[in-house]
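Lecture 7, part B: from sequences to assemblies.

Below are the input chains for today's worked example.
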Amino acid sequence: MTSFDPRRVRADTPLFTRVINDRPIAYLDSAASSVPPRAVIEAMSRHYERRHANVHRGVYQTANESTHDYESAREAIARFINAPGGANEIVFTKNATESFNLLAKSWGAANLHAGDVVLISEMEHHANIVPWFQLRDAIGIEVRFIPVGDDFRLDLSDIDELMKGVKLVSVTAMSNVLGTVNPLKELAVIAHRYGALIAVDAAQSVGHSTTDVTDLDVDFFIFSAHKMLGPTGLGIFWTRASILADMPPFLGGGGMIADVTTAGYVPAKGPTRFEAGTPPIAEAAGLGAAVLYLEGLGMDNVHEHERALTENALARLEVEFDGRIQVIGPNSTLQRGGVISLDVKGVHAHDVAQVLDQFGVCVRPGHHCAKPLMKRFNLSATARASFGPYSLLSDTDVLLEALGDAVKLFG
Amino acid sequence: MSNLEDLYREVILDHYRSPRNRGELETPPAVRVEGFNPLCGDEIVVYLLVNDGTLTDIKLTGHGCSISQSSSSLMSAAVKGKTLDQVRDTIVKFKQLMTVHESSLETTSDPEVLDVRALGELAALQGVVKFPVRIKCAVLAWNTLSQALDEVSA
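Predicted structure of the full complex, as structure tokens:
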């Protein structure tokens, strides 16, 4: 049993030695990218310093080590999300966005037909919207949206109507703007009852809570390494082995073939069929280290830590700003993660973020690649603060101090 | 905090809180051009009325941060009533202000160097160059105005 201490996580994470505008960095942008601990950075350095070789090619010692690291990361991810079929169900991509393109352009193009419906929601990231519009324009599917209610949660009151003609439900596990955590198990039951499959954008949830795709009974699970303390440049795509086996290749080239002749090619079986070209090997080594690190912290501990920080911040924002600052998201931590979007009345999000930067506070201003959601709530931008396992109450202290300054400056 | 005060000067906050020339003009005779900043969602609509080579009226609508909004307000005040040649000259000078390295703003003895004082109130925006990601906010209105002028002369 490990005892979780966020100060220990912070000490393990080199970025937190940075000083910004004479203040220690208050990194509150984990929803955009989480900060890797030293163990992840060292695993990546070790690849370049001690191995360097390409994977699945050479027979020499360091090539074997590279392949071992790369495949170990696949196994670590399979374990981390409890993939029923193990590492053979894990495909590495460039990022979660590419994973969604793989889903739409391989599985979608092969299994969907004109008139079939893909049901997404108003709170999706553009990564889970645009590939479906592209597929609509290519083969004539319909893209339908589950509405978001005034309580910032999916409005499932008309779900039976919405499900008509649906072949795939594709929703986020947790909104990157609202922090809302969606009822995946319930949605999986609904999707399957109508004979549809269900895909999940888990980019915001997987680094912040325990994940079990077997228990959730979902069909596709998509996320990215750099939102779970790993490096950028690496995304993950999981689906059941039975579904993966029938998916046509997406990108073509080396590494994804079983055979090539002057007459044609035969694609490889298993996940490598979708991994054309030299993969991100150092990044996979980093991801493997990130999984070990998170397992050491305990995902339930991470979740409870961030929940407590969120509860504290929501309460103080309400008390200290008395309506001047509105939280765009649920006001309780029930079914909610550590992402807090702020609308400061009379002050644009970019100006808020600019003032916060003077305090070393890193938040993300803008539409967060979720323009349909922003339009739903009549906003052009919010300033978003988000927590990670290394976040401390002192980060919230300086956030509130800086917000007070922003309000004062703009009157 | 000195940097922040360079950015958010009183003139800028004043134009943000009380923007000049807000509203719409009837089209035609006015021309209407929209400008977008897709990264931050800022939007601006410029209405121009031109008579005999003079910009006789300008109105603006849209939304965005204090820099984009104050820049558009300051712009409208600076170009209203000017000849189109003067307007184009002001656009060039303002764009120069946004690209000039901050250290070269100190001296104006060289005639080739931009004379910030000649820009009047617009000079209040010179602090923006210290915040490179905000330059796009400041120039949005000006690019939209340029586009509107092109439509007028087309």
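Note for the exam: Chain B touches chain A at residues 1, 3-4, 7-8, 13, 16-17, 39-43, 63-67, 69, 131, 134, 137 (CB under 8 Å). Keep this in mind when comparing with the next example.
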